[in-house]
Amino acid sequence: MNHYRLTLSYDGTDYAGWQAQAGENTIQQNVEEALAVLFREPTRLHASGRTDRGVHARAQEAHFSAENAFPRPQKLRRALNALLPDTIRIQRAVPVEESFHARFSAIRKEYRYFIWNGEVMPPFLRNYRLHARRKLNLDAMRSAAERLQGTHDFAAFTANPKRDVSSTVRILNELSVSKKGNEIQLRAVANGFLYKMVRSLAGGLVRVGLGELKPEEMTRILESRERTARIPTALPQGLFLWKVTY
Amino acid sequence: MNHYRLTLSYDGTDYAGWQAQAGENTIQQNVEEALAVLFREPTRLHASGRTDRGVHARAQEAHFSAENAFPRPQKLRRALNALLPDTIRIQRAVPVEESFHARFSAIRKEYRYFIWNGEVMPPFLRNYRLHARRKLNLDAMRSAAERLQGTHDFAAFTANPKRDVSSTVRILNELSVSKKGNEIQLRAVANGFLYKMVRSLAGGLVRVGLGELKPEEMTRILESRERTARIPTALPQGLFLWKVTY
Question: Nearest 5°: CA angle at A18, between A12 and A23?
């Protein structure tokens, strides 16, 4: 068997997320179809994790194995990009050892969530930013973010805790808030994320920024380990899978 | 009569340019329809200049006059944005003196042309950049750009010199080339531009960057005052109307 690793960027706007599903246009299905053409065999692609409908990736990672070898591996990236829609781009395609697993070998993942905090959304960013018209309180958001950093049970910040069978404890190495002009960037780095966890963290932080939640309440919500309606799931279009570290 | 000035941003990707045309979806027509709703009369919008199919605007300027006054002028921007598609945004809507004319009062215009100079185009930029895979020679491009700056007859750099009846002489105050990472930015500032002039300048500079034209040849082409096939019109998606100065 031949093993390969892919690094992908995609604009999630018009996709029903990563995972192949009957009757839906997904990232996985598009890339698997291109691989099937080039390798002349059905090929299953394994990502570092799923991304939801409308979520983007700057650098998603994936691996696959094939019976057939690609005759010119240094041309694999270009051949895949020639077959794929321009909303999905292969940044890197390289042979890899069999032991590499895009999901299980990952030691850290980084997501970024972008918010346009101004009256008028630039039309070029409409698919890539959450729009918050009212000015958000950065100090309050930073105070809340600091309370969420570290090793915690994040059951209160996932849409479906039972989907993750083993544990809802994660190490959130970083949750930071920065601003440049009208653009606010949330940066979340962890050993792994629960289902819709980043969008829940972002949703909570935006409510804090709006003054609808106090930073101290985030600690109580975290400790409750119960999902509450006070933590909304922020819209998908602001979210980017930024980097996976192995 | 009541007079207003609008500053607009738009994503030109899905529009047949600025100018209203029967059977085409244009920026002008969309904004005029929104104005007709708010002012309860047919309203003609005058821009600083047309932009072509697929060209974007960071800050287009326009004016219009209406018999009816808008009862709450400070809410005009928001009311227009509520009616417009999110690919067209009003950044500013203010009452203005009758003497203001978006086209004739303009003293300077700035366009920027963006090139992604790397093997793989990021999917998020696909509608906003020209893609040049081969590395462009920046020094050669800068040398060519310098030769084009100043007051010249730019007949060799317009798609249709007869469209501009009076004169093809323009004052090109600035034509500069800068690069950050894989992104090249061309900045063109002039008292006015001929039809497809910026895209012709960009097309010529890209050919120089590829080594297909020498910087010195740009001087000869300029002096010939004749359009030649050696100057291609660069694709519209890299072009942004950046700023109009009054």
Answer: 95
Is residue B8 within 8 Å of residue B20, measured between CB atoms?
Answer: no
Record the pTM.
0.94
Q: Do B126 and A10 touch (CB under 8 A)?
A: no
Q: What is the DSSP letter of A119?
A: S
The dihedral through the CA atoms of B4, B7, B11, B17 has a sign that is: positive
Tell me how far CA of residue B219 lies from CA of B101, B146, B148, B224, in angstroms.
Answer: 35, 10, 7, 9
Q: How far is CA A35 from the centre of its chain?
A: 23
DSSP annotation string for B205-228 = HHHHHTTSS-HHHHHHHHHHTS--
Distance CA B156, CA B144 (A): 15
Q: What is the pLDDT of residues B212-228, one digit of tens each?
A: 999 999 999 999 999 99
User: In chain A, which residues fall in CATH 3.30.70.660?
Assistant: 108-245
Domain B2-95: state its class: alpha beta
Nearby residues of B177 by Cβ (< 8 Å), 6 or more positions away = B138, B141, B142, B145, B184, B185, B186, B205
Answer yes or no: do B126 and A11 touch at CB < 8 A.
yes
Size of interface A-B (CB pairs under 8 A): 54
Q: What is the pLDDT of residues B154-213, one digit of tens each?
A: 999 998 766 656 899 999 999 999 999 999 999 999 999 999 999 999 999 999 999 999
The predicted complex's ipTM stands at: 0.92
- Tell whether B86 lies on the interface with A, counting CB pairs under 8 A: yes
Token code pair at residue B132: 């040049």
Tokens 């005009």 locate to B76
Minimal CA separation from B103 to chain A, in Å: 23
Residue to mutate among A30, A81, A124, A128, with most B CBs inside 10 A, is A124
Q: Where in chain B is the domain with CATH 3.30.70.580?
A: 2-95
Taking the Cβ of residue B121 and every Cβ of chain A, the question of whether any pair is shorter than 8 Å is answered with yes
A243 in Cβ contact with A62 (< 8 Å): no
Euclidean distance between CA atoms B182 and A113, whole angstroms? 23
- What is the C-alpha to C-alpha distance for residues B215 and B231, in angstroms, rounded to an integer? 13
What pLDDT score does B165 carry?
62
CATH 3.40.1190.10: does it fit domain B108-245?
no
B22 touches chain A (CB under 8 A): no
List chain B residues with CB under 8 Å of A89.
120-123
Is residue A104 pLDDT above 70, yes or no? yes
Average pLDDT, chain B: 96
Shortest CA distance to B176 belongs to which of B151, B195, B159, B198?
B198
Does residue A128 belong to the interface with chain B, where contact is any CB pair within 8 Å?
yes
